[in-house]
Amino acid sequence: MSPPHLLLRLAAAAALILSLLAEEVAFRIEEETDLKATVGNVWTGLGRQPPAPEFRIIPASRFFSIDRDGHVRIESRIDREDPATCPDASETGSDCVIEFNAFNGTTRIVVKVTILDINDNSPTFKSPVKEIFIEEGDQRFSIGDNGMMTRGHYFLKEDEGTFALYRSQRDLLSLGLKGSPIIDYEQEQQYNLTLTACDGGREQRCSSQLLLVRVRDRNDNQPNVTSIWNPDVNESTPIGGLVARIYAHDRDSGENGRLSFTVTDSRAAAAFAIDPEGRVTLRKRLNARTKSEYDIPVLVSDGGVPQRQVTIKFRLRVIDVNDHEPKITVTPMPGAAGRGTRPSGLRRTAGLTRLWPSSR
Question: Keyword set for this entry (predicted)?
Fold first, then answer.
């Protein structure tokens, strides 16, 4: 290789080495800074006077430009929470640094701009409304995943003042009763609360979520028999006829409050039936001469788990009715009457029998 060619190659290699030996300058700005705002001056950052040649950014930067005097300016909106802009920062919370190369002649300057977070976002919930299901009698309930970290401040607003917020050792939020009230489904089936979350910024930002606390019924009430209609029953009452009625209710709801009735005595059950409404009807005809009173035990049960029951007993009196006609029997006297015998010579005895109970 001739000396001139060797010198040219050495010069090119030296220029390449010089270009690779880049200097570095760093700036810091807040996200959402106005467009065309000055980030800083490259030469000031390096501590020397600018040379004549203009700068070139290779490759071109989406966010920044640099003039011949070394002033770095913003060309596009910068959002630190944008994953495309700051992927590591949006996922892990680490520093967001945007880096670009500025060439001035053969000098390469690496410009690193750290994007500072500002309080430009309010706390967010997964949804504006959240349902929480609790059972009556409970004292504390988990709010569950509402899409927020528990850092920051939380406030609870409600009209009744029944609930309060609690934070566990694992920094989880839960909802509990304030003081010692009792949650009773029969008194209140739903509570409407407002959960407000505020961040810790200097210009505090807040957002709210509506909590619908729905109370589930628990089988905590037993059946209550309020009255029994059991008049005296005529023995002529037909099969299927109504002879008594039990009035009962249960303060629980759904299956917990659905009542059933059972005649527990086998002999009484053979004579009487009872339906889910407490109506007692006849299974067979009654006869006051054979049985004038019935003691009927009834088990009243709800449909809850565990089941609650109460037993009651009532008496039915069977009234005899005048349902038999008198019966006349004629008994002839001993001896036969011959032809021509006068009527006055005949004697008859008549017996009048009425089929009433012997006790009467």
Answer: Calcium, Disulfide bond, EGF-like domain, Glycoprotein, Membrane, Repeat, Signal, Transmembrane, Transmembrane helix
